[in-house]
Structure formats: structure tokens, C-alpha cells
Amino acid sequence: MSIDKNIFKATWAYADAPESTDHIKIKKQYELFIDGKFVAPSKKKYFDTINPSTQKKIASIAEASSEDVDKAVAAANKAFKSWSKLSGKERGKYIFRIARLIQERAREFAVIESLDGGKPIRESRDIDIPLAANHFFYYAGWADKLEYAFPNRNVQPVGVAGQIIPWNFPLLMAAWKIAPALATGNTVVLKPAETTSLTALKLAEIIEESGLPKGVVNIVTGAGETGAAIVNHPDVDKIAFTGSTGVGKYIKKATAGTSKKLTLELGGKGANIIFEDAAIDQAVEGIVNAIFFNQGHVCCAGSRLFVQESVADVVVEKLKSRMETLIIGDPLDKNTDIGAINSAKQLKTINEYIKIGLNEGGEIYQPKCNLPKEGNWCAPTLFLNVSQSHRIVQEEIFGPVLTVQTFRTIDEVVEKANNTPFGLSAGVWTQKGSKIFNLTQRLKAGVVWGNTFNKFDPTSPFGGYKESGFGREGGMHGLRGYVKFD
Amino acid sequence: MYIGGKFPRTESGRYYAVNDKKGNFIANMCLGSRKDFRNAVVIARKAQKSWAGTTAMNKGQILYRIAEMLEGRRAQFVAELITQGESEKDANLEVDTAIDRLVYYAGWSDKYQQFFSSVNPVSSAHFNFSCLEPVGIIAMIASENQGLLGLVSIIAPAIVGGNTVIVLASESKPMTAISFAEALNSSDVPGGVVNIITGNRSELFSHMASHMDVNTILYCGQDDKMMTEINELASNNLKRTIFHKKHDWLAADCESPYMIEKTQEVKTTWHPTKV
């Protein structure tokens, strides 16, 4: 079957459709949010946050030293005494209010998220920000109902939660961390990723506005050292981390001799499996969404494609054609499908992996597209002719790079899909019901999508098997990491 | 020892003598080696898939059968516990509690899933549910105190949840562990589901905590240094760690569906509902 690729290259082009930025307010400099106030960092050090699509500086961000982390933890500890005693009903009201305030300023949040992180405005507007607000709404309602989540147990908060989040879904990850912690009566010291601090600091403004008692949520910005100061702080009772498996292992080791409670949401190398009896066009859309959503900066991305041999040619052909139509460019343009790579450092990592893939004999395919001259960009990339032993098949790339393998039988593909230290996500595409459930039961992953991919919801528990971490976020199960039983 | 449904001696050929409180010789036990443990992991991995696939009803029946076998050999277990240093009263109570505990978890086999699972009302046209799946293989360092009850209390919730286990028995009170293995062996528990090794904690714990094909390490005891090391070693493949610091396994809170939950993963499945 041959497809005329030119039919997608229509004679008309998309006109620019940029989201306006004039309604957003970004300060020149951001301070730390400790004990209900914005305070300068003790060492007066600041770092730049960069717009990855232009490489231009947006603002200066305070760098929290270990002294600043001490202050934040002390404030959280002090606030814990009264916050944990407050009735669930009252706690819930504050969380509801935060949710509402995010909704009211959703547009501003969406634009800043795309400016600071490089993700397409369509995604920050329709996915990140609404989901973040909904997450607060969801957990607000749990605050006075915890005894129904854990029958026969007297539920107590853990204490001060140190929370470290990544740069791929900045505000959403902050919501995933803060909302359940507050609902269960914990107080928080949160560190956003150093390349995407802005929406967390905007959230701090909202928290201040909401009247949440001071010290209940503290936000300290900085890089790895700030994170390490939180992890190793003796007065932190719980660590919740989302990020790489390497750092996750370090945290597990670093907290070994302590009584800190730990939840880790780490890397992945999700298998996306297409059977010959799948609805092929839908599956192709699913493949694109699985790997190119958010530039592939998704821990649960479907980065390993497995196509049944009998349909491999047609699926790959259609996929290539579809990739030709993807629009890469200005994150603030509403037409954009693939935005900027989050940082120059991450772009370097991705390019190194592409080089590794080529050196290992992989056959590369990238659509013809004009990447902007300034900024961090990576064309959507396929690798054919790869096998299980290739590094690009085994290791998490965290970019828009998809490896394609084929299979013949169910047993073979289950074996291949599970043959990885990771276990975060997987996808299965087939029109046969029993095959869906056969596969979803046998795939060793915390989230399995049947005939869909990369869907998220506050009510839906998310988290990994094996080296993708432990603990769940979202849903009733997401409360578990923030409570202890008497 | 008890590995893969058989009673082999340690490949190392080593043994150690177990004495009673007064220092009188009771028996020679295998001094299990690292290689014995590694062999047991391979066997436990093979057994896990089909054990997890056994119906909940069937797993419950098998656990109930273990309780029956234990009750049938009640006198033997009481006598062994007394030999290992317990009073007659304590020995009777321990055996009775162990039998009850097996019956308790037998009953949970087809219920805990309903208790911990959920259908999640997502805001899109998808059917979405979360249920429990066994974590896989659990390496266990059993309580040093209660040679029978300490063992039953950690094995029962793990296997009723579809896991397979390799247990290092109490070093000073290992005989009841091997007698318990005989009860298991005559209870329709498939070979490899429960594997029991005897030997030295300080020699074996690091191998148990660092093995790359073990999913969870469970430790019973009060040695903080050993727990720290287990935690550190477990980071190499992000094993889940479970620590039980309790001395006394008779307490009522040692029976709980939350003990099963600790040995489980949550899997969430999505499917569109729009045609």
C-alpha cells in the first residue's frame, strides 16, 4: 500500500495563531516562599529561568541554600501542630479555595507554563492547568472523609512532607504533591525543578491569597543541592519525589537509616503494542500521542512501539505520513503540536541518544520540518531496525524519540514488553476485548491503556512497578503515601 | 531446607548445631549459603506466574488446607516449640494462633481485592479501574522469636496475595520452620511458592537485600543497623522494603488485610467507552 505523502502537505499553510502574553504578570525576580512570606535567599544567590523556545531569560529565581531549607522545614514543622489538628472540613475548604483560584487564573498559568517550559499552549491550556485545578478539587473533598478510605484504621498525618518535582508538568506535579498532603493534614516543603520554577511560584501567590495558614506550604527553588538538603533534613518525615530512576535510587539509599516515609515516581520505557486487529488509524494517532505528547518529556511515554509483523509496513508508513503533518515550533502558537525541548541540557541528552541509535545501526526517520533557529528543538524521530539489546530501546530518553520493533505472537510481545527494569506504563491496541484484558493483566506496569494512551485524571491512581518507583498518586490510593496508622 | 517443594541439603554441605537454653544439643540444621538463596529465587520466579494465576477460591482452599495440616500435627509442633525453649502454655497458644491465622488469611483470599480495588470516575469517556497485583517475589527474614507464628504471620498474607517467597527461618529456632515446610508440602501448595532456608542472618541478609530479581525484602527484628543496610542495598533495583519491629506476633494487629496490601502493586487500566 502506498500513500501519497504530498496529500498531507496541503497547498495551504497554517496561519500563526499565537496566544497573547500581555495579560500575564511576571516579576523580574522571584523570592522563596517560606512561612507565608516571600523572602530573599540567605546567600542572595539567584539563577535565571530561560524560555526554551528563544533561549531568552524570563526572570531571576532565588536559589535556596541549606539554611533556607532549614527555615522552610522549621516553618512547616511549626505549622504542622495546628494544621494537623484542624478539622478535615476546614482543611478541605482551604484546598477547595486553592482549586478555584487556579481555575480563575488558568489562562495566565497556561501561558507561563508554555513560556517557561516550552510545552504547546494547547497542552498547558487543556491538560496541565485544568488537571492541576481538578486535582486540588478532588483531594479537597477527601480531607473530611479519610476514615472511609482506610476502614478499621485510625489515620494520622505523617508530618512534614519534602516534595521534589520535575520539569515536565510543573504545575500539575505540584498539585499532585501538595493536594493529597494537605488533605491528610501534612505540611509541605516543595522544590520545583530549576528550569520550571515559575508556575510553582505563581501557585505560592495563590496560596498566600487563599489565606492558608502560614508555613503549611513552603516553596523553595533551586537545583540538586536544594533537593538534597530537603532529602537529608532530619525534621522531614516524608519524601515524595518524581524524577529520574537514578536520583530515586539515591534518595532510597540516602533515607535508608531514617524513619522517613518514601514515595517515588520515576522513569519509564513504556511499551505500546499494536495488534493486526487494531483500528489502525486510531492506533497511529495513539502512537503519536504516546510518544510526542509534551515533546516526549513524559515518564509514562509509549517510547517502545511493538507492531505485529503482518501490519508493520502499513503502520510505519502511516505513522511516517502522520509525522509529516506535525507542527513543531512556537509553544504559544495554538497550532503547535510539538513545542521546545525543555532545556539545552535535555536537548543534548536527546541528541546523544540519537547518535547512539545511529551508531548501533538503527535506521532513523525524521519528517522534513523547519525547526526555528533560536531555542531548543528536536524533530520527532523514529528508529527502525532496532532490537531489545539497543540502548535506545532500553534506556529512558525523555524526548520525542520512538523505537519500533515487530512481533508475531502474544507471548513474544509480552515477554519483550516486560523485559525492562521499568514498569510504569503500557498500551495495547486491538479491537478484541479478551485480548485487551489478557494483555493488560500480563503487562507489568502501574498504568495500562487499552486503545488509548497518556490519559490522566485526579481520580485515577498513577505510579510504577519495579524501578519506576513505588506508591501511587491520584485517586483514593494516592492518600496512602501521606498517612500513617496509629 | 525446603526449596521448590523438595527438602534438599545446602549445596555448601555446611551445617550448624542448634542447642536448647541449657546448651543441650537438639539438632543439626543446614547452614544455607548465598547459592542456596539464589537457586531458590530462580525457583520462586518460575512458580510465581502460575501461583498468581491460581483462582482466589483455590488459593483460599489451599491456605485452609495448610491450617488443617497444622492442626493435625498440633502435638508435634507444640513439642518442638517446647524443645526450642517455650513454656507449654506459650507453645500451645502459639500453635493455636498460627492455625487461626492461616484460616483468617484463607478467608481473605477472595475478598481483599474487592476491599482495595476501585472503579475511578474519570472526567472523560473512559472506563477506568485500579486493582491489586502481587509484587512478585518476596525475600523474608523471619522473626527470631516465635519460630512458627512469626513464620506463618508473614508467609500467609504474602502467598494469599499471589506472591512467592523465600524465607530465612529463625536461626535459633529453625526446627518448627522445617516441620511447617512438611505441612506445606502435604497441603497442595505448589512447589516453589514457599521456600524455606535455614542459616545465618548476618551472612545472608545482604544477598537477600541486593538480589536483582527479588521485588520485596521483608525483615522482622530490631537490629537498626541491619535495617539500614537492607534499605541501602534494596535501592539497587528499588525493592520494596517491609520492616516488622514487633516482638510479639500473638497481637491482634498482626492479622490484617493491610498486611496483604503491603505485598501488592496497584495497576490502573483505562479503556475508552465512546464507540
How would you explain this protein's 3D organization?
The complex is a heterodimer of chains A (486) and B (275). With 486 residues, chain A is α/β, with parallel strands linked by helices. Chain A has helices spanning 66-83, 88-104, 106-117, 121-142, 146-149, 170-183, 198-210, 224-231, 245-254, 280-292, 309-324, 344-359, 391-394, 410-418, 433-442; strands spanning 29-30, 32-34, 37-39, 46-51, 56-62, 155-157, 160-164, 187-191, 217-219, 238-242, 261-265, 271-274, 304-308, 363-365, 381-384, 401-407, 425-429, 447-450, 469-470, 483-485. Chain A folds into two domains: 29-266 and 465-485, Aldehyde Dehydrogenase, Chain A, domain 1 (3-Layer(aba) Sandwich); 268-450, Aldehyde Dehydrogenase, Chain A, domain 2, CATH 3.40.309.10. Chain A has 15 helices and 20 strands. In chain A, α2 crosses α7, α3 (106-117) packs across α4 and α4 (121-142) packs parallel to α6 (170-183). The radius of gyration of chain A is 22 Å and the shape is globular. With 275 residues, chain B is of the alpha/beta class. Chain B has a single domain (15-19, 26-272), classed as Aldehyde Dehydrogenase, Chain A, domain 1 (3-Layer(aba) Sandwich), CATH 3.40.605.10. Chain B has ten helices and ten strands. Chain B has helices spanning 34-53, 56-72, 74-83, 88-108, 112-116, 149-160, 175-185, 201-210, 224-234, 257-261; strands spanning 15-19, 25-30, 118-119, 126-134, 137-141, 164-168, 194-197, 216-220, 240-244, 264-272. In chain B, the strands form three sheets. Chain B has a five-stranded parallel sheet with strand order 7-6-5-8-9, with helices on both faces. The N and C termini of chain B lie far apart (57 Å). The model of chain B has no long low-confidence stretch (mean pLDDT 96). At the A-B interface, α9, β18 and β19 of A face β4, α9 and β10 of B.
